[in-house]
Each structure stands twice: as C-alpha cells, then as structure tokens.
Design brief:
It is a lipid-anchor; GPI-anchor. By secondary structure, the protein is α/β, with parallel strands linked by helices. It is 23% helix and 18% strand. An 8-stranded parallel β-barrel has the order 7-8-9-10-11-12-13-14.
C-alpha cells in the first residue's frame, strides 16, 4: 500500500554542483536546518539520549492517480500540509517515492523546522526489484538510482531512515526474493559508509503476510553486521476497531518479536474495516509494546480513492476527515512512556531460517553487488534518473547483473557460470566518466544559520 505555513520557516540553502568533463551534471548532497539526527542503540531509536518513538503518517499525495509524483520537491504541497502534520502532533512522515534529480532543500528544511523526520523509500515504480524476476532486476542501473537517492537525502539531519524495499515479498510463493532485498540493504549500508555519510539506518518494510513476515524478520537480522538490517518495519492491519490488545492479536505480535535485536516499528497501520477511532495508538505507545516496538506510521495522509485518507486534498485546499480528528485525539491522549520504555541496550542477531515450504531460500549466500555498481561505491552515483527515467527492471544483462555470491564481511566474490537461459541484453546503464570528473570546492551557504561546510 502506499493552510499555508509562514514562509519564514522555509530556510533556503544554496547548493553548488560539479560537472563532469563531458557536461553531465552531478548533484552534490545538501545539508538541512539542524535537528538532532536519530540514532540506534540496541532495539530502539534515540534522539540524543532520549528514546525516540515514531509518531507519523504515510505521505504520498496523488499516489492513487497512477502518476508518480514527488511531494517533498513541491513547495506548494509543503506549505499546504505541514500545518496539518503539526495539528496531528506527528514527528515523522514516510514518503514512498521521490524524484532524485530534484532539489528538496526547501521542504526538508521546513519539515525540520516543524520537528518532522523522514522515512524514505529509495525505490520508485521504474527503479525497483521485480518480484517476478529478482535476479535480472537486481542490477547496476537500479542501484545507481538507489544510491543517487541516498546522495540527495543523506545530508539532511532529519532523514531518519531509508527503506530498501516495500512488500517485495507479498506471498508464500515469492520468498526467493529475500536474498536480493537483503543484498540491496547491504549495498545501501556500504554506500552510506563509503561515501562518508553519517550512519543513517537502512531497513525493509514487510507485507502483512502471516506465513513469512517473521521469517523475513529473522532473515534480515541474521548473519554478520554488514549483512544485517539496521531495523525492520512491518505493515500491519490486524487491529480493526473496536478491538483490544488481545483481540487484535497484537499481544501475540509482541510475544513473537520479544528479544528481536534491532528496532521494529509499524510502517503502515490503520484498518478501515470499521470506523477508525485509532484505539491501537494507546497500545502502541504503552509499555506493553514499547519494549519491542518503536511506534509507527498511519496509512495514510491523503484520500487516494481507497478509503484510508485522513484528509481530502483539492488543489491547495485540505479538508480533514473524521479519521484526522480521531487520530489527532488518539495521539494527544497517549504520551510516550518515561525512561527507555523497556528497550534493550544490546543488539542480538537471529538465526537464519532454513528452507521450507514457506521459505524458499536455500542458504545464507547473498548475490554479490554487480561489478558495474561497485564503481559507484568508490566514485559516487552521479545524477539521479528521476521519475521519468527509462527504468531498470528490464536492464539486466551480462554487464549490469550480479555474477556471483559474496561472503559475509569480506566482500569476496565467488564467480558463477552465466545461465544459458539468460535473457538477451536489455537497456544499458547510463554511463558516467568518473575519471574525467573534476570536483571543485563546494560550499553550502546558509540563509537561516546552521548550514555546514561539506
């Protein structure tokens, strides 16, 4: 699934760009208005020394139109919606797709000024894993777009986390995609580290599928540090008002995830089977759950024709629905626990699940990063293709795909024979002459105070 603010809070920043020898523009990451970055200790998020609970909404206006758009490169949308985020009392939004060729300074700074963090999916409809053919769609063209999105958002201090995928596995029949999801997570972590960014958490958003959601949780948290996800997020619609902690099965959810060694939160929740009064908020931010969960994101902010919208948007006009008022009241009524809310200070790995009728993964091997994508790790991804790029799902070929497996912790690659049934070569990855790239001194000037030199 997926009133105007005073312009004074929209801190503007000047960003410089360097240009490759052949004239290809390469965007430089920007910095944002200063807020305290979110970090991880044990199985919880922290803002400084204080436990941080995600209180938020999923945000993708226009997501139901079939035309992908980027809400946080849109100044009008930010001015329109941030006051309503403030009224709700949220501290986080999740955005499912952005245009990585655009500048996001103004909206990200406005969100930061309002105390709002971003959980960002790095995929788009054109640049993502294809669950029908994960090996072909895991290619350097795809990773170039993912890495370019990281570049575009890594220096915003209110970028809370990146999502390496959303519901790639959505049934018991496509768990064979798991190694590719985990490989993308590994690659993103490696890219963040190699490019010298702060340690921005990377994780996966899992579908509400009883057969394998917990198996995937174990899989994303098993192995060595370089293989393990930084957090795990679940989409869950099992609490349908009127309900309770036990009637909904959330007590079992907590029991099953107790002892899980990385932060866990709900990346989507909010069943609409009945009238939504958001009774589950009182449970989610209560100590009966906070030892395991770090809050969640309600699906979704805007009405997109599926009945989940908290508000209805028409042009520049926002009309809150009854769900908006109910969620506002629920958030207001339930404070966070004092102290650490029962969180663990240690981060324990799990045991990788074994192959079964519900888990089609034979061993712990992961596909090696495609050789063409290794160039990006050391030299940078270059300019992002945006939402109108040619796409990556059919770009797999002998030059762009992974050709082996990588050993955990070492990066060692074991080459494997190319399958004789390999599809004919498709679209090529865009090429960037990084050796010819000359990078000048880039200085970000602050118009609001607090911008940093890169």
């Amino acid at each position: 699934m997926r009133q105007k603010v005073a312009t004074g809070i929209l801190a503007l920043a000047f960003s410089a760009a360097c240009v490759a020898a052949e004239g290809t523009p390469v965007l430089i990451p920007r910095a944002s208005t200063t807020v305290t970055p979110i970090t991880i200790t044990g199985n919880a998020f922290y803002k400084g020394s204080d436990r941080f609970y995600i209180r938020g909404v999923d945000y993708q206006p226009g997501g139901g139109t079939g035309v992908e758009s980027d809400p946080i490169s849109n100044l009008t949308a930010c001015e329109r919606d941030i006051p309503y985020f403030t009224k709700l009392g949220i501290n986080t939004i999740r955005v499912y797709a952005v245009d990585n060729s655009k500048n996001h300074d103004t909206c990200m700074n406005a969100l930061a000024a309002a105390g709002i963090y971003l959980v960002l999916d790095t995929d788009t409809s054109k640049y993502s894993l294809n669950r029908e053919d994960p090996s072909e769609s895991y290619n350097s063209v795809y990773l170039q777009s993912v890495f370019a999105t990281i570049d575009a958002f890594a220096n915003y201090s209110n970028t809370l986390a990146f999502l390496s995928g959303n519901e790639v596995i959505n049934s018991a029949a496509n768990t064979n995609c798991a190694p590719y999801v985990k490989a993308v997570t590994r690659d993103m972590k490696q890219y963040i580290g190699s490019r010298g960014y702060r340690s921005i958490p990377v994780g996966y958003s899992a579908a509400d599928v009883a057969e394998n959601q917990e198996l995937m949780a174990d899989y994303m948290n098993c192995g060595t540090t370089d293989q393990r996800s930084d957090f795990y997020a679940i989409n869950d619609y099992s609490w349908c008002d009127p309900s309770s902690f036990t009637t909904s099965g959330w007590d079992t959810l907590v029991k099953n995830y107790t002892g899980y060694g990385i932060p866990l939160f709900m990346s989507e929740y909010g069943c609409i089977t009945n009238t939504r009064t958001f009774e589950e908020v009182a449970a989610l931010y209560n100590t009966e759950m906070t030892g395991v969960f770090s809050g969640g994101l309600v699906y979704e902010y805007s009405q997109e024709g599926n009945g989940y919208g908290l508000v209805t948007i028409s042009g520049d006009t926002v009309t809150p629905n009854s769900d908006f008022t109910a969620l506002q009241s629920a958030y207001s009524a339930q404070a966070n626990p004092t102290g650490n809310g029962g969180a663990s200070s240690t981060s324990a790995s799990t045991t990788c699940p074994t192959k079964s009728s519900e888990w089609d993964v034979a061993n712990d091997d992961l596909p090696a990063i495609p050789a063409a994508a290794e160039v990006y790790i050391s030299a940078g991804a270059g300019a992002g293709p945006g939402l109108s790029g040619a796409g990556s799902q059919n770009s797999g070929n002998s030059s762009t795909e992974s050709t082996g497996t990588a050993s955990a912790g070492s990066g060692t690659v074991t080459e494997t024979a190319t399958s004789s049934s390999k599809k004919s070569e498709g679209a090529r990855a865009p090429t960037f002459d990084f050796r010819a790239l000359t990078v000048g001194v880039v200085i970000l000037f602050s118009m609001a105070g607090g911008m940093a030199l890169l």
